[in-house]
# Entry
Amino acid sequence: MLLKTPPMGFNTWNSFGENISADLLKETADAMVDQGLAAAGYEYIVIDDCWAERERDPKTGKIIPDHNKFPKGMKDLSDYIHAKGLKFGMYSCCGVRTCANYPGSFNHEFLDAQTFAEYGCDYLKYDDCFRPGTVDTVVLYRRMGMALKACGRDIVYSICHADRDKDGEWSRAIGGSLWRSTNDIHDSYESFMNIAVSQLNNYCYNYPGCFNDMDMLTVGMYGGGDNVHVRTTTGCNDEEYKSQFALWCLFGSPLMLGCDVRKLRPAARDLLTNKDLIAIDQDPEARGIIDVSCFKEDKYRLSVMRHLSNNKIAIGLFNKNGEPERDVQLLLSNCGLPMSGGYGLKMREIFSGEETGIIKDYFVTKIPHHGCKVYIAEVVKC
# Structure
């Protein structure tokens, strides 16, 4: 399925791990609508690993939903989610077993794709664990791409391979809609900032049809959740979550929520439904990020820009490590605007609404520890 903009939705893994059920997913669908998330563009509800029985049906060979977690089956859940105006997503793996040791799709790709289509699946996250070492990874992802083409239903193909084989070079070609470019996220500032910095040179592979996936968001978790692989002792504060969401939007990553949206705090809800940030993420030109930091590999600051449609530019300035605040600079020459050109930037900060006037060559602003400022800018004559 060809996506024109990065997908937005929810995934069960970060907060719930194996502790999932039909009731949980139905309550999540209700909350997505009631909290205004669906209206903001979050439309996919994706079940991650741990949804199946431990073994396939011995007669049909099909993967069987866990009878205790999903007593009415997946079609009943899918129908409920669709009735809410949302879309339904599933998880599988190219190996013999999934990462949590449930049946994988190895040598069952066409059967599983057809099964997912029968459930009413709109999105498939396809992982890479327990893959036979003698089999080429790209071939297996290509195989599921063909199986999805043959299943008779449009299904978003989310390739989750952590960029082990230069995934950006082949994911779109084999039918992928998005590709995971990072290792797993944790609910900490260091985790999401390291992920963002690792992708600064990877955005030539982000374009309409196939998007660079920086993993599910931890915004709103605050150190909670059942999944010990993701949660941390304290999680992040609101200022840090603001930086995470701004980075994901500036980088044009898919926006898959990982918090328990049923218990979403007002500050997190307001951030996740910020229209300006979502518009940056969903910009139809889907252009990559540019690192315009004054000093490359700066341990303390990060400055990025992104060309948007309608002759706009997004600018993000981040204080990676400063107590209690730090000056973060923007050199317009790094953005492609030398003083000799006769043009500068006029900027509006999206959180405060502050307008800068015309910046000719240099801009500096104070940003709190682990915080950020994000600007919508336009090129103007000085």
In short: The first strand starts at residue 8 and ends at 11. Residues 8-281 form a domain with the TIM Barrel fold (CATH 3.20.20.70). The chain has ten helices and 16 strands.
